[in-house]
Amino acid sequence: MSLMMTDEIFKQLRDFIYEKSGIFIPDTKKYFVENRLGRRVQEKSLKGYEDYLYVIKYGSDKNELVKLFDLITTNETFFFREPQQFDVLRGELLSRIVAENTKAGRRDIKVWSAASSTGEEPYTIAMLFQEKSEISGFRKEIFASDLSESVLSSAKVGVYGSYAVRNVPEAYLKKYFSNSSQQYALSSAIKSMVRFLKVNLIEERDVRAIRGMDLVFCRNVLIYFDEKAKQKAVSQLYDALRPGGYLFIGTSESLHNVTRAFRPVVINKVIIYQKG
Ligand SMILES: C[S@@+](CC[C@H](N)C(=O)[O-])C[C@H]1O[C@@H](n2cnc3c(N)ncnc32)[C@H](O)[C@@H]1O
């Protein structure tokens, strides 16, 4: 059975998704919503998208909203994505953070991976931290969050296919993964370094508990937001950082027209945004 989505229902669905997640779907991407939601409409034996809209807007089952988030988010990620940023982290940036925290009398390092998807980003950070003798005496807290519950469940399991680990250095693969039939299971030592939680970046009440971060990674998610939602999310990241804390966004993303609250710091051609 093929389902038709009218322009009017598309607009209402798109506006609802935007209001709840900040994800903005332009008119040209009606096919995207049809593709992602079509099967769900059939699974629920609904007559069409209009009924689905009614269920997510007025239905009593809050799980359908969870399912909607799972369906409309794009969760592409892999270990050591945008490796220049990780090179800067394990080099000068970590040394700076250690010096700043030591000066402030702190022996901990707090990092938040704010749109962690299936966990490759926070686990990459965990492996780098594990390798860094300079911070062996520091308490390392790595928080990782996402809007989609299904990616968080899979992150907690920590088993990956060969595509996800393709950039992992051979030595790390041997040390931190066990491999059988094209599946790479992350060691419990690395898994236990990361705490996963569900956080919607545009919901103030979700982010309120996250404070005093030395470093935030918020990569490849702002691209799905419009300017207003970007501003909202970025101001929450700002509040989550300690004074002088650092923010990485994706290398193809920019804070132009979003905020001037951060000072761009350039290390080895990589831009890091520092809270003023
Ligand atoms: C493309 S992935 C990026 C993963 C990782 N940061 C990276 O760069 O490889 C984008 C993630 O953002 C999440 N996301 C989308 N909207 C969100 C929101 N409002 N709050 C939190 N996470 C969101 C999606 O569920 C998805 O897992």
Beta-strand residue fraction: 15-25%
User: Could you describe the largest sheet, including whether it forms a barrel?
Assistant: 7 strands, mixed
Query: What is the rounded Rg?
Result: 20 Å
Mean pLDDT: 97
Give the full name of the CATH homologous superfamily of the largest domain. Vaccinia Virus protein VP39
Bound molecules: S-adenosylmethionine
Elements, N to C (H/E): HHHHHEHEHEHEEHEHEHEEE
Question: Going across the major beta sheet, what is the strand order?
Answer: 6-2-1-7-8-10-9
What percent of the residues sit in helical stretches (DSSP H or I)?
A: 40-55%
Q: Any idea what the CATH architecture of the largest domain is?
A: 3-Layer(aba) Sandwich
| SSE-based structural type | alpha/beta
Shape by Cα distribution:
globular
The total number of structural domains is 2
> What is the CATH class name of the largest domain?
Alpha Beta
Strand tally: 10
**The CATH topology of the largest domain:** Rossmann fold
Low-confidence blocks of residues? none
Straight-line N-to-C gap: 56 Å
- Assembly classification: single chain
Query: So how many helices?
Result: 11
